Amino acid sequence: LGKTSVSEYAESAARAVENGFRALKWSPFGYAAHSMTPEQEHITIECVRQVREAVGPDIQLMVDAHGRFDLPQARRLAKRFEEFDLFFFEEPLPPENIDALVELKRSTTTPIATGERYVARYQFRELLEKYACDYIQPDAIYTGGMNELRKIAMMAETYYCPVIPHNCNGPVCTAATIHASACMPNFRIMEYIPVPERVDILKEPLIMKDGAFELPTKPGLGIELNKEVFDQYVYQPRDLDHFTSAREIVL
Fold this sequence. Notes:
Elements: E1 4-5, H1 6-18, E2 23-26, H2 38-55, E3 60-64, H3 71-81, E4 88-90, H4 98-106, E5 112-114, H5 121-129, E6 135-136, H6 146-157, H7 171-181, H8 196-199, E7 208-209, E8 212-213, E9 249-250
Parallel strand pairs: 1-9, 2-3, 3-4, 4-5, 5-6
Antiparallel strand pairs: 7-8
Helix pairs in contact: 1-2, 3-4, 5-6, 6-7
């Protein structure tokens, strides 16, 4: 981690498109929390602008705030993002106050996504009943498995709400999410973070073509663990704090 320039984000986005990805998500907010200084806000908007210019109008762009802002700041950003035609603005607010999300959603045409921190279908019920977001993001692990993920998606279907499964985990969860998503009429897109170290733990990697996974066809989840490499990946604590100065973005 360290300072990253907006031009580096734009270059990285262009490379991802060259590698076949048609949808890109990142966090252009640096280490800001609650609110932003005028300079921080300017850098964020410039980062989104340069990424959009680098990839063109046909690539879906998403930004993830990790629940960091208060309502006035989230509203300002959502309005300023409208010119970039984002696919969605993820977790602009903390997840506990759904009425605040309703206020935000009514104030902007930028689509809002949330739900990765919810662990039960009952939490999604209130989110859906109040039409507090445009997309829900249940996670197969956090919600208790792929069957519960499907149940949440079925509930969302009655509210005409698309599902974008949250998936920041390894290939086992990815495989489970792929199978669950294939059974959702309202599935829209699945989150995926390419991490080279994760590929080794499967005997055969999941197959991706043009930014989309093929549905595994072998028994079970369609994957087999390569236990011979497990000792190489002993748990090591890592600081993933999004709000430290190491996350700074500069012009």
